[in-house]
Amino acid sequence: MHTDAEKEYLIRAIDTFKRQIIVISPEYRIVAANAYARERLENEIIGQLCHEALWDCEFPCEECPIQQIIESGKPALVHKVNFLTLKKTECHYFYPLLSDDGSVDAIVMLDFDFPFLEGLEEKLKRSNSFLRNLILSSVDGVIAADKQGKIFIFNDAAAEITGYSVWEGLNQLMIYDIYPGNGARSIMQKLRSEDHGGRG
Predict the structure, then answer these.
(1) Which residue would you say has higher pLDDT here, 132 or 119?
(2) For residue 48, what is the DSSP state?
């Protein structure tokens, strides 16, 4: 059992740790967060649903680590991929806090950034924010997917054209759902052909 002095030091250490530490209930509510997480997210997040406060989603993510942990009782690792470069820039580690009977009492989320060169992170954020806003506010439909067909860009115009919501586009659809039949494969073959710039 920790003494009161130990608890005080632990809380201070957690608050000065320059990584987000967020505790989430099995009902997806944020129940605690360290000072760094509160400062970085700017809004009051305690009591908010994690998918709304952290990822601006209306519903829990399709491959929700919280749900995985409740079902398995085992930790989960989630990579956050940069919207424009597709490079992994941040890693989220989720692990369960177990009650005496072994059930999941809460889930702790830790984030670990991959290091950036001094001063580069802020410039990248500004540049990415500008490009992201440009894409999302475009009057043309913009949809982008990874090699497996998972959509990671789906702007408002794409939603209007396809009839799917932005949330559905980003969380439920694959690129193959957008193009009927063999359409997606045919387009990818054309994009990778020598006539359109080559494989790179």
Answers:
(1) 132
(2) S
